Amino acid sequence: MRLVIGSDHAGWSLKQHVIDHIRSLGHEVIDVGSHDDKPVDFPDIAREVARKVTSGEAERGIMVCGTGVGASIAANKMKGIRAAVCHDIHSAHQSVEHDDVNVMCIGAKIVGPWLASDLISSYLSAEFSTDEDFRRRVEKLHQMDAEG
Asked: Span 2-147: which CATH code?
């Protein structure tokens, strides 16, 4: 799978660990920044992550910021993105299985490297359910996205 990853300055310290883990699982990574701990605006990075996902250049995205909350809000502003903050294993896989999440956001100030690895493994191994209820609900999300 090809993934896009982005971080702001608060998530930068965890980002390389995340990249290394993704690659250890056999996936390809597109890194859209940030590339150091100098302050950046998370909406700018979230926009780049979202563009790579919606264009099809990446299948899914991961954002790392301080808490994951700002990144999730910003990514969800982009048409076609379903982003979720995931700080537990259940949410990491169920967000994909039930809600077809395509951008997972994690907080470097909330989770450490070990948990981040477990979250990513769970997120990447999950597949959107074929259950009609989940498909119907996500279709309603698509309709809401189209309506604005």
From this structure: 3.40.1400.10
